[in-house]
Amino acid sequence: MARAALRLSAAQLAETAKVGVMTVSSFERGNDAYASTIDKLQVALEAAGVEFIPDGSPSGGGGPGVRLRAK
Questions:
Q1: What is the mean pLDDT of residues 40-63?
Q2: Above 90 in pLDDT, residue 69?
Q3: Which residues contact 35 (CB under 8 A, 6 or more apart)?
Q4: Hey, which of 1, 12, 43, 64 would disulfide with 8, CB 3.0 to 4.6 Å?
């Protein structure tokens, strides 16, 4: 969802996050990933303009999610 909202390819996200394309694809299919890999992906997505909404956030409607940061 976050990558699609930014119109990034898996290769672009992988390059920015300094992980492999297969790692991005595997994670998006729901496979487990190292915490350090998830951190790298989150940092890259946040730098590109994604805001992560934690579970229970008043602005998140009660559940976790993502949205594009206001410009």
A1: 83
A2: no
A3: none
A4: 12
Pairing between β-strand 65-68 and β-strand 50-53 as defined by DSSP bridges = antiparallel
Tell me if 1 sits within 8 A of 8, measured CB to CB: no
Query: C-alpha distances in angstroms, 37 versus 13, 32, 59, 63, 70?
Result: 12, 10, 27, 23, 26
Integer CA distances (angstroms), 24 to 12, 46, 62, in order: 10, 16, 27
Domains annotated for the chain, with CATH where assigned, are: 2-68 (1.10.260.40)
Dihedral over Cα of 53, 55, 57, 58: its sign: positive
